[in-house]
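S., here's the first fold you wanted:
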Amino acid sequence: MDIAIILSTLDATIRLSTPLLLACLAGLYSERSGVFDIGLEGKMLASAFAAAAVAAVTGSVWLGLLAGLAVSITTAALQGAAAITLKGNQLIAGVAINMLAAGLTTFLGIQWFGQGGRTPQLKAGERFTEITLPFANELQNVPVIGPIYSGLISGHNLLVYIAFLAVPITWFVLYRTRFGLRLRAVGENPKAVDTAGISVVALRYQAVIITGLLCGFAGAFFSIAQGSGFGNNMTAGKGFIALAALIFAKWKPVPAMFTCLLFGFLDALQIRLQGAEIFGVGIPVQAIQALPYVLTCVLLAGFIGKAVGPKAGGVPYTKER
């Protein structure tokens, strides 16, 4: 295979795995604290709409990003109130967030912009563009190193670099800080954490807010980085694939990164395979587009082994009197 095709596929893999990685790390914080979150999809969708809408109206990509983060964090706090304070069913709270975001973004898009739920096309200053890293142009003709650095590592937008930088930060926070120790403990044995004088509710809210922050970045990536505006249901189930990646990685940040890269590669592969033929017979586009989802199910069913989540996950904590 030509080296240019390989680099192009790997470049697409990095871009397509970025929102998965951000959402996967978001779910990791929440579920490590004992709050199961299937509302990742909804928070990403709400963030994508808010970011694109504000960027289109103000002409500023940074205001768009801040709006996406604010809406996602607010949505996460709302979900946290239902699941933590009101001690509601965490799965139902996540489903409610997904349904609310799907309906509300379409409704507001129609009411505000009159384009069938879409936002206006964003101009250059209203979306993140590719960043050329230092010496990328000078090194591009150097054998092996040049194409990898200039064509694969360089040339991505800011949110891509934030996503991959979040992996070592998450690892450090979870395994090298007091907050991370308490976060992992509250997901395993909240009663012991409470006995030590640490607020279980406060820790879980902190985790949920971090989840909202990372989902905000993931949603903004769809509309003001990878895309140039918001489209109906543009997250296309990526939140659920991120949850699958989190389970596959067994709630660990570094394996989560490689799992998201694997799923991103499968997505890039289906784009590359569209129009392919087997024994002279064309493969339906729908079958190729379903490939990442089918392989996700196969990988989870056949290769994950036993994955045991946090012991206190999904169970509201009630302080004993």
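And the second, which I think is the more interesting of the pair:
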Amino acid sequence: MIVGVLGLGRIGATHAANLASLPGVEVVVYDPDATAVERAVAATAARALPDRDAVLGEVEAVVIATPTADHPEDLAAAAAAGLPMLCEKPISLDVASTAGALRVVEQAGVELQVGFMRRFDAGFVEMRRLVESGALGGVYLVRAASHDNVPPHESYLDQSGSVYRDMHIHDFDAVRWLTGRDVVEVYAAGSVLVDDMFRRHNDVDMTALVLVLDGGVLASITGARAHPLGYDHRTEVIGSRDAVCAGWTERTPLRSADPTGIRGAVDPYPAFPDRFGPAYRAEVEAFVALVRGESGNRSPGHAALEALRVAVAADHSLAEHRPVPVSDVS
């Protein structure tokens, strides 16, 4: 199987390396940045092609890891070529263009897997199994911490949308996927405490959210663009019979203040490729299995739209200082 990778930034290069390590998979790549292409080819023995159309004309499936603004056009081109695709989140930064891209994909009758890698993280998969099996009992609460180690470069903020559309969109999808419930209302608060560049981009670097899910289940999420000890992304599900957590390991950058508590990670996670490295590999394994007809789609396109609607509601909530129903985002 020949799989193309469009875009060779950090996540695109990760996808290319993981695909190249799979048996029976040949990788071809394109990025307008010649240096990025050289690095990817050296690391993976992938074959470089001169442009996007050359990739689409040669492959059986494609991974889209280009800048978010290019996703709708790249999705449409891949759909026109009849190719199944794995597209990084978000599909677009606004609801209308996301819905339009999904219509194009549906009309073409091709598979679209969205890059919500937490659906492939072993801890998250086990938590969902426990929820679905009833082992946790009735779900009461979900609590998530999404704390980056260091802030992104200011140039990244030009295209990220907001902390909700960029980082917390993963949390919004995970909450829906883990519980099997829709988010009906969002309340978001935020501050700029780390770097004034976030204020310049009408964004925040510290945030806290409360989500109300259907049936009254609650979720709380905290977000930080800087954490002094490392990359800390954890999610807990609390039920009537049990409580579990994904992301609490010997590398979690948090230490207890109790005299007999955990002293803290010796080798804390520095960034997302380390914390979610196995999940990214499992994600492309699942995509290849989907293309081969060996499994169903574990992260379908509509999940991107639903998570984005929650993110947009969060942006409105932050700006207007009020809870916002997700139904208001159409």
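Why I say that: The radius of gyration is 20 Å. The mean pLDDT is 96.

Talk tomorrow,
H.
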